[in-house]
């Protein structure tokens, strides 16, 4: 086996389909027997924006045993599930190179504490929506950016085989840097779309939403001045444009009455700014509103 993908949500299935389509031997590690059976029997169905689709054959299993035999493991579970996966990796003494794809930046310290030998982090700017156990809609093309953190960077070369016009793969020398860039994008899109109840694209077409995003951008750039050149406001607008029809993951969680990833996206960014004595009052207010939404779900 070339690659094991842990987690078969929207991003996991999107990645699994493109990796397999490139000729790599891919196994999806899924949570339920029902999803395992659907994928094994019918493959992953990927639907593109123009309505065309592809059905890609992959294997699916439950349990993390297969991770030990892969050349590379892609960990695409939500932040809330990551601790469980990391504990199992440590118990099984997994030494396979690990590529982590989670929203936010809170997972950085969790992974580093485990001291795995070969680690990289990745960010995804694609629009993707899982509609059933084996179907993922590719609603916007972005980049998969991989940044090494520990170990031999050549261990992650295998994933570049999947790079194409619909699924471009980019390498970056600094895993922490790409996580910071992505979490700032998350902070600019996720809270506002969730609070306003709008798609990513409506942050461009709704003048009030657009103004709120510009004001929040200026606040973040004052705290993270080194990122202004690499993350101009036009780049944030481009992400909104490329994923215009998508609801952010945070809004999807709110609509489904699931806990939102506030801690790893919003709270972690506020805490990182505070390390350099920078305050983020706008983002702090949005954090309170989001926490109020989460509290309502608990009730």
UniProtKB/TrEMBL annotation:
Task: Cite the Ketopantoate reductase N-terminal domain residue spans from the record.
Answer: 3-148
What gene name does this entry carry? panE_1
Please state which protein family the record places this protein in: Belongs to the ketopantoate reductase family.
Q: Which GO terms describe its biological process?
A: pantothenate biosynthetic process
Q: Which GO terms describe its molecular function?
A: 2-dehydropantoate 2-reductase activity; NADP binding
Identify the Pfam families for this entry.
ApbA, ApbA_C
Q: Which PANTHER family would you find in this protein's record?
A: 2-DEHYDROPANTOATE 2-REDUCTASE, 2-DEHYDROPANTOATE 2-REDUCTASE-RELATED
Name the species this protein comes from.
Sporosarcina pasteurii
Q: What is its EC number?
A: 1.1.1.169
Domain Ketopantoate reductase C-terminal residues, every copy: 177-283
Write out the pathway annotation from the protein's UniProt entry.
Cofactor biosynthesis; (R)-pantothenate biosynthesis; (R)-pantoate from 3-methyl-2-oxobutanoate: step 2/2
* Reactions catalysed according to its record: (R)-pantoate + NADP(+) = 2-dehydropantoate + NADPH + H(+)
Q: What does this protein do?
A: Catalyzes the NADPH-dependent reduction of ketopantoate into pantoic acid.
Q: Which residues form a coiled coil?
A: none
User: Which SUPFAM superfamilies does this UniProt record tie to the protein?
Assistant: 6-phosphogluconate dehydrogenase C-terminal domain-like, NAD(P)-binding Rossmann-fold domains
InterPro entries in UniProt: 6-PGluconate_DH-like_C_sf (IPR008927), 6PGD_dom2 (IPR013328), ApbA (IPR003710), Ketopantoate_reductase (IPR050838), KPA_reductase (IPR013752), KPR_N (IPR013332), NAD(P)-bd_dom_sf (IPR036291)
Q: What is this protein called?
A: 2-dehydropantoate 2-reductase
- Identify one Gene Ontology CC term for this UniProt entry: cytoplasm
Q: Which UniProt keywords apply?
A: NADP, Oxidoreductase, Pantothenate biosynthesis
